[in-house]
Amino acid sequence: MKLQETGVLRAAWVDPSAVFRGLTGFVDKTLVIAELEVRKLSHDATELVTRAVQPALWLLVFGQVFTRIRAIPTGNVRYIDYMAPGILAQSVLFVSIFYGIAIIWERDLGIVHKFLASPTPRAALVLGKALSAGVRSFSQAIIIYLLALLLGVKINWSPLALLGVLVVIVFGSAIFSTFSLIIACLVRTRERFMGIGQVMTMPLFFASNAIYPISLMPGWLQVISRFNPLTYEVDALRAMMLAGGTSAYGIGWDMVVLALVMGLLVWIGTRLYPRVAY
Amino acid sequence: MQALETLELTRRFGRLTAVDSLTLAIEPGETFGLLGPNGAGKTTTIKMLTTLLPPTSGDAIVAGFNLRRHPGQIRRAIGYVPQLLSADGTLTGYENLEIMGKLYDIPRRELRRRVEEALDFMGLRDSADKMVREYSGGMIRRLEVAQSMLHRPQILFLDEPTTGLDPVARRSVWRLIRQLRDEYGTTILLTTHLMEEADQLCSRVAIMHHSRVVAIGVPAELKASLGTSGATLDDVFIHYTGDQIETGGSYRETSRNRRVARRLG
Known about the structure:
Chain A has 278 residues and is an all-alpha fold. Helix content of chain A is 73%, strand content 0%.
């Protein structure tokens, strides 16, 4: 005995208009998932405020002290100016890196199962969550810009530069939140995830150019930092956030690296995410 | 044409066989019950049929589509309410419905109409703008069923729809399931370990035990087949599964179920 299919298939890859519909459908679904996360945030925004404490401490305490003692050679840029984009990147990292905990939470309930049984493309589920991390980070960026303004950091206010910063923030949050999602898919329990999250965050932060130039690092760390996407994020932010800011690797190259890393991570995440429901 | 048909559907996890050669057919419009003690393979079966878990071997046709070849088409044609809590507590009831409707490609204007209709149907109109974490267990279940019905699925999968609910809420969910069957003609496949529930709702049931279907049929016929007068579905269940109702359920599973029960309660 063999089972016979009787349903009428919808053609998906035959005519170009169907491909176009598929593509707009994908974008549409991604935005719905992002909207979902943003709505949750809008119901309870206290998290955004508490999250702002840490970058504020870094800028106000660490930044001011190190600016005064001039311990870190940053050329003709004041240290506080040098570090502001680094702290922006750091808070994007911190907001995003614990994103996976929500995945584990949703798996312990049945939310993941319900989404995976819906016709939403897997990649749209992963990318939508990544985008929503970008929205969270964006709210952090506003706070950091205000603090920077307060501390007299020379900010580049040109609309193009601001837009560029926004794009880099979205890339950065998408990268680290999807990385976090991948870890969550692999470790599966909250306890293990928290442990690993703690262990990963600081090395990512310190093995980058966020608060000191790479040229100060020992050789082995310099090599590692070149493989750290945070380095490229900071480099692009430093070039676009500061008035007269310069990039070490070129903004174009930074963007290419960030886009490729994001693409790769979303691809891996898309492969792993459905297994969460097993 | 059958609404759902499986052929030797099997799922293994390592050396454990969770579902062993499941073969069954469900007619359109039926309310079919999958019964069995904890760990019998009910949830694994549902996960396979809802495309969440690829089968190890065997085959199935769901709503006319092959499970292996066209899972995407199946997802459009089915609705699914997981055993665990699946409505989002940090959103309002209205938002929960709206988001689901968008994911199922219901046109925006039509969506508003269907959400309103669903709220009325489920008796949630007055709580539509309240956060779901303030809902009672029965309300959450009704909302979840509403979410899964927005796109008018041909087949609805309900995994233990009344676990953790008090008797009043349970009866309201039963009434709802009958209404769905009568008003929309939806084919329903539900799992339960409550024999009363199966007796009340199901036109046919299959009893699973140790990963296999050990009995299948109309409740009345199954009862009659025991040959004792006044046999209940409980007796049928015990007859086929031995007196091991206390089987299954690891520490992890128990802790999870209790947690859900508390949230839904």
